[in-house]
């Protein structure tokens, strides 16, 4: 089981580590997804209160789907080499009525990039769109993560 550990120096100069187990996100056999704690942690940059609360709730409860035919087909690299980390099927979702599923491409991203990409996708489940701002990572669909 994965753990999140924090080091702290005591008054004597000794370093102590505190570790907590990480909670897996709900998924359909996805292998490369952040933990609930990593997803929620990266969501604190979102400046809109309703959107941030929605994303945090989605990190804890939405389903991350990797293994259906539609997801696999959309995750194939485009001819120009561009890839997506995930996507959300469009609908009438909002921060008060989110869509409960993210389609995830399960790419071999670094842990930090994976968490930012998941927050981006969870924001879409809450009705956010590219260019809306509010501090969502990858506001214009581009993040500094590399595939």
Key phrases:
147 residues, four-stranded mixed beta sheet, 4 helices, alpha/beta, 29% helix, two-stranded antiparallel sheet
Set down the secondary structure blueprint.
Layout: E1 3-9, E2 15-21, E3 27-28, H1 36-43, H2 49-61, E4 63-65, H3 69-74, E5 86-87, E6 101-104, H4 111-125
Parallel strand pairs: 3-4, 4-6
Antiparallel strand pairs: 1-2, 5-6
Helix pairs in contact: 1-2, 1-4, 2-4
Mean pLDDT reading: 87
Rg, Å, rounded = 16 Å
Indicate how many domains the architecture comprises: 1
Estimate percent helicity.
25-40%
Order of helices and strands: EEEHHEHEEH
Strand order of the largest sheet: 3-4-6-5
Number of strands: 6
Biggest beta-sheet profile? 4 strands, mixed
What is the SS-derived class?
A: alpha/beta
Tally of DSSP helical segments: 4
- Residue runs with pLDDT of under 50 for 5 or more positions: none
Q: Gap between N and C termini, in Å? A: 25 Å
Beta-strand content bin? 15-25%
What coarse outline follows from CA principal-axis ratios? globular
Written description of the protein model:
The chain has 4 helices and 6 strands, in the order βββααβαββα. The protein has 147 residues and is of the alpha/beta class. Helix 1 crosses helix 4. It is globular, with a radius of gyration of 16 Å. The mean pLDDT is 87.
Summarize the structure.
The chain is α/β, with parallel strands linked by helices and 147 residues long. The chain contains four helices and six strands, in the order βββααβαββα. Strand 1 and strand 2 form a beta hairpin.
């Amino acid at each position: 089981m994965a753990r999140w550990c924090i080091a702290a120096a005591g008054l004597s100069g000794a370093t102590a580590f505190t570790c907590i187990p990480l909670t897996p996100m709900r998924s359909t056999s996805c292998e490369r997804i952040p933990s609930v704690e990593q997803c929620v942690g990266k969501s604190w940059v979102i400046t809109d209160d309703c959107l941030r609360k929605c994303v945090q709730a989605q990190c804890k409860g939405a389903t991350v789907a990797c293994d259906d035919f539609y997801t696999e087909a959309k995750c194939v690299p485009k001819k120009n080499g561009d890839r997506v980390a995930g996507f959300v099927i469009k609908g009438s979702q909002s921060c008060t009525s989110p869509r409960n599923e993210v389609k995830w491409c399960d790419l071999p991203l670094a842990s930090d990039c994976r968490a930012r990409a998941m927050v981006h996708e969870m924001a879409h489940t809450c009705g956010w769109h590219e260019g809306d701002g509010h501090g969502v990572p990858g506001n214009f669909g581009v993040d500094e993560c590399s595939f």
